[in-house]
Amino acid sequence: MQGFLARVIKPATHNRCARCQVVGHHPSLELCMAKAPQEIQQIVQVFRGKEDPLSNMFVCPKGCEWGDDSTVYNSSEQEFQHEKVVALDKPEEAFELLEMNNTFQIKASELVPESLTAWVDREEGVLYQACYIKFAACSHACEALLNSRSELVEGMNDLKWGSGMDPQCTLEYLPDYWLGQNRMGKILKEIQSELLEAR
Q: What is the pLDDT of residues 177-188, one digit of tens each?
């Protein structure tokens, strides 16, 4: 008797929603459980880019810089990246970062730490400090933060700092279904709380 191949038939999963995992619809449909209703969308504020004062990429106006005689910063991204290269003992790169005024150029120069674990253990605290000083120094950014909505999220495809989605998708879905951790948004809410208490 010749052998034969048996094919196992599994339940169809090709029509399973990638967002809420329910079979039978596409995530773009209104019945998707992950879709954010209008009242939720109204309390979510998505920030992103150099024009948004909540973003690390925002360059504070002249006169709002912070630092000391040897290191002056005009964005929290600049301070964050500078602190990183200082921690990695790379003085040439640290000097170059201080000379840069374009935050996207600063971001593009980002170095991957050789001792990743050592930096990851510090990075959130360093970023928190950089952002706190920025909002304390720049009244425009501070007012934007104090007057922001209940839920803050950086709408970008970064699974750690942002929503892990573009700004439009971020607004369309409930926070529980965002792909990213939104650690940047959580940092800003903590800083907002501290600044409001200090008033």
A: 999 999 999 999
